[in-house]
């Protein structure tokens, strides 16, 4: 049994958009940085051989390199918003997580290293780790995580907790329906007595990044282009007046350009978008007053109906088809909106707990902190749910809490005295192997 009372545990939540890390018992994560990595393939073998554990798995990383066998496992990773904000030649931006599953473990190690060594300044050997994981995490993924944590980082103890359960704990409930809308996807998961009911989990690939892409495409179709921060310089011609000069950087990769555009576009989305009170339709919103937003290069754009149309894709995914240039909408057409996912998930649960789930629907994740989203979801659910159900959508009034609810739940859980005997300790790992994680962390 591991009694980790002396040192505080580290809570890590690696999401598809941002990684949150900090100490258990605190009320917000210390470090929040993008969970993508910049990667440069190193062509010539350099003197500083980096101790990469095994070859890179991600096929994308070697696609552009001239000599892929030499470059295998030889790539320099840049992690953190500062490192990514600096443009480098031939730097690809890769996301190690695809559809909630880790596809590039080397990049994940880079992210963990950055969190421990540069953000929190801790030695992982000295702190137990509580990691948040997606509700649909596979057995291989969990075992691989445990193996890395014990073998590479030599942590004294580990616990893997499901995102939905942590969100539930953050609001002080053991039973609830968690609607977690993050960067890469939206997941609806029922939690009963602290356990996720796996058979009733519903998910959809529409998350914040998809909405950001839709917004970018929609603005481009109206002739507004978002210039990434690195692609221009501002010269002062007269005091207070600037002239924008485009910078020609031929070696910038397409993925870095997209990443930089996304940073600006997602800020526009967070500033001006809000969920409409009623389902969006072109004619009703055509002459809505516009909101202005100043881009980094100084030009001001006016955003009208898009402010409501983009968020409404969450409720009605087929809207995305009306935006010129949104690819793969054939996959989006059959998708369900948020209210349908909630009803579907609740109907797959046991009859006895449905009422309780309807009355405690929790919103979590960055995309869920959009204005008016809670009111709109509640309104739609009232129309579609059975008469007897009392529908209540709960969301913390504080958007920080909504964005970090998974992390906050982990922070609460790992600092409870009664939780200390639940840790999966190093001794147990050495005795039973990685597969024991299934028994220790249900």
TrEMBL record:
Pfam families: Actin (PF00022)
Record field: compositional bias (Polar residues): 50-65
InterPro entries: Actin (IPR004000), ATPase_NBD (IPR043129)
Region (Disordered): 44-74
Domain of life the protein comes from: Eukaryota
Protein family according to the UniProt entry: Belongs to the actin family.
Designated name of the protein: Actin-related protein 4
